[in-house]
Write a sequence for this structure.
């Protein structure tokens, strides 16, 4: 742990005219953590990052870095490095000049600068491109240049705004893994904005899930995946997304499309609920909820089945060798601990 | 068989291309001829005339003299003075236009409201005829006692000045008038160029801890460089050949204080009526303009 780079957001509100981009957002990031801000576009995660960077000011609320109130501190005095979604490289400077720019602004001696630039470039493997201009680089190389510029100065916070979104799929996977290693080796607090739940799941130590300007859940990726707080998060995290079907709760059981599933709830009584079951948690079994196979999407090692259960669409991921064929009728079951129940009116977890 | 077919196809293509070329030439011809008649022909006629002694006051001395006009010109002190006046006028007006234009563009760029109105007002001087601008300044602005500038000078305690009668003040006045009229052009070009710069690199620079001045020096200026150089080239060529505003304001006076090379050529040709020598002066101006533009274009390509 570096012991610095601790962040606290307290009751942050950001208004754009009458529109509330952020409604009372509070969270804390621990030193050395890789923290992801996850959410669909327009959910306020980028606004949060810009407020943290000091590029935008909150309408109300306070931002603390390492215990100090920085709400009214200018971006240039916050000691923060950032990788922009657009990379924001200086187009008239070479890669070396881009990377050395933050050091020059910090009045570092010339000799130290060139050593630091080479070191940073080597870390992201662009040391052979130092004399090129950004316009002569591929998207992936530009991205690395932006990374190098951000890590060359040992800032206390390292912000990444959707850094992988402009890369092609293969490069994105490679860079994702490198990014994680880089963050570990630098031992720096990183805040990562993404709309891609897979990125957040694989990279983050902890994450905050944003929906419509509010944080719906904060926790480790495993926690959020295992116990989503609301219907929205349940539908957002996981691929394919969780099946969410209207159902009836009755004395510890839940009735879906006429079939009774056991749950871990023990409350007595009856009520309407929304039942959530991940496609991977459903099993094909000799007995259970009977369903007709509508569509088979074969992904090679697994297959995703679209099932019609008395008019309700349910998706199942199967990895067995004998994948059912379209038109077959099969039965599915799920373990009690894999069934999530939500309140249909508030959307909250029960 | 196939060979014959391809040959025919190729011939056909050639015929088509030829027909298209002819059609293009026919479309081009009227404009080309008009251009030749109004620019190229007068230019060569000017050079031709400059090889003659052609004095309307003393027609009996007329005749071919070869390069005599040019050797006279090189020894003519008034020519060198007017060349210096031209250069002073050009350098100072262009520098002022770029500096003030850039400052205004940066200022307007940060305006949240009223940008459109500002642009509209700014464009007004440019669309005025330089002759009209000259008249307005001479009468409305600079006239002793009644002109706005003189009125302000009196109220500021400087006393009434003879703005167009004093050699130094007259030079300053014509420079100010030219700058007033053409700064909006530099302003518009630089504003458009500024508006096209991406905002995110400024945010990156802020996070990289650059001060406002460093952001301007290290990012804005280098990125605006092509636009600035273009403005300098265009305005230099125009300033070197400026005429109407100075002609209407001072007529080159007092004495020869504001007599730029262009005005000297005019006075020689049409006041003193020695057209041959006037043509030589005009050719000299042409050569100076071409030389300076060549240097500027070379500088533009250098980086």
């Amino acid at each position: 742990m570096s012991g610095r780079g601790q962040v606290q957001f307290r009751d942050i509100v950001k208004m754009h005219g009458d529109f509330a981009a952020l409604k009372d957002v509070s969270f804390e990031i621990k030193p050395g953590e890789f923290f992801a801000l996850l959410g669909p576009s327009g959910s306020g995660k980028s606004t949060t990052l810009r407020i943290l960077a000091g590029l935008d000011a909150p309408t109300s609320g306070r931002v603390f870095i390492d215990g100090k109130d920085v709400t009214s501190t200018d971006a240039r005095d916050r000691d923060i490095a950032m990788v922009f979604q657009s990379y924001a490289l200086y187009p008239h400077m070479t890669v070396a000049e881009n990377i050395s720019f933050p050091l020059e602004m910090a009045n570092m001696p010339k000799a130290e600068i060139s050593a630091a630039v080479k070191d940073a470039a080597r870390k992201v493997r662009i040391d052979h491109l130092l004399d090129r201009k950004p316009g002569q680089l591929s998207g992936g190389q530009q991205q690395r240049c932006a990374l190098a510029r951000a890590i060359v100065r040992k800032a206390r916070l390292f912000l990444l705004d959707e850094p992988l979104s402009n890369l092609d799929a293969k490069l994105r996977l490679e860079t994702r893994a490198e990014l994680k290693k880089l963050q570990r080796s630098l031992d720096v607090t990183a805040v990562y904005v993404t709309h891609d739940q897979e990125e957040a799941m694989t990279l983050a130590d902890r994450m905050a899930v944003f929906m419509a300007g509010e944080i719906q859940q904060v926790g480790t990726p495993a926690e959020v995946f295992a116990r989503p707080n609301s219907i929205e998060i349940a539908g957002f995290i996981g691929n394919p997304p969780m099946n969410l079907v209207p159902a009836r709760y009755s004395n510890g059981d839940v009735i879906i499309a006429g079939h009774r599933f056991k749950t871990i709830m023990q409350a007595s009584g009856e009520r309407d609920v929304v039942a959530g079951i991940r496609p991977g948690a459903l099993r094909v079994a000799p007995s259970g909820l009977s369903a007709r196979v509508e569509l088979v999407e074969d992904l090679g090692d697994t297959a995703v089945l679209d099932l019609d259960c008395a008019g309700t669409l349910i998706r199942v991921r199967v990895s067995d060798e004998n994948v059912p064929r379209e038109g077959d009728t099969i039965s599915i079951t799920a373990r009690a601990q894999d069934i999530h129940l939500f309140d249909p009116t508030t959307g909250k977890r029960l | 068989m196939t060979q014959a077919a391809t040959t025919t196809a190729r011939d056909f293509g050639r015929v088509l291309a030829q027909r298209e070329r002819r059609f293009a030439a026919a479309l081009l011809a009227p404009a080309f001829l008009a251009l030749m008649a109004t620019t190229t022909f007068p230019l060569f006629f000017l050079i031709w005339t400059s090889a003659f002694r052609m004095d309307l006051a003393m027609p009996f001395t007329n005749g071919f003299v070869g390069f005599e006009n040019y050797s006279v010109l090189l020894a003519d002190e008034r020519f060198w003075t007017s060349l210096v006046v031209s250069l002073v006028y050009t350098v100072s007006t262009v520098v002022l236009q770029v500096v003030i234009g850039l400052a205004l563009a940066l200022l307007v760029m940060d305006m949240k409201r009223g940008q459109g109105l500002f642009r509209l007002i700014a464009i007004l001087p440019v669309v005025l005829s330089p002759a009209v601008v000259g008249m307005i300044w001479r009468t409305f602005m600079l006239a002793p006692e009644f002109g706005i500038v003189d009125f302000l000078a009196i109220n500021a305690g400087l006393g009434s000045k003879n703005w167009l009668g004093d050699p130094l003040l007259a030079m300053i006045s014509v420079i100010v008038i030219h700058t007033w009229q053409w700064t909006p052009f530099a302003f518009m070009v630089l504003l458009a160029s500024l508006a096209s710069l991406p905002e995110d690199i400024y945010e990156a620079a802020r996070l990289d801890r650059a001060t406002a001045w460093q952001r301007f020096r290290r990012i804005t200026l280098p990125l605006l460089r092509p636009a600035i150089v273009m403005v300098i080239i265009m305005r230099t060529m125009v300033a070197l050949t400026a005429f109407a505003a100075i002609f209407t304001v001072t007529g080159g006076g007092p004495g020869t204080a504001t007599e730029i090379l262009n005005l000297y050529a005019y006075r020689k040709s049409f006041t003193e009526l020695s057209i041959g020598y006037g043509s030589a002066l005009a050719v000299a101006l042409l050569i100076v303009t071409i030389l300076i533009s060549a240097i500027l274009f070379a500088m533009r390509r250098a980086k």
Summary: The two ends of chain A are 37 Å apart (CA to CA). The CA atoms of residues 264 and 336 of chain A lie 6 Å apart.
